Amino acid sequence: DTGVSQDPRHKITKRGQNVTFRCDPISEHNRLYWYRQTLGQGPEFLTYFQNEAQLEKSRLLSDRFSAERPKGSFSTLEIQRTEQGDSAMYLCASSRRTSGSYGQYFGPGTRLTVT
Amino acid sequence: AQKITQTQPGMFVQEKEAVTLDCTYDTSDPSYGLFWYKQPSSGEMIFLIYQGSYDQQNATEGRYSLNFQKARKSANLVISASQLGDSAMYFCAMREGVTGNQFYFGTGTSLTVIP
Question: Who among B44, B91, B95 is closest to A42 (CB)?
Answer without folding.
Answer: B91
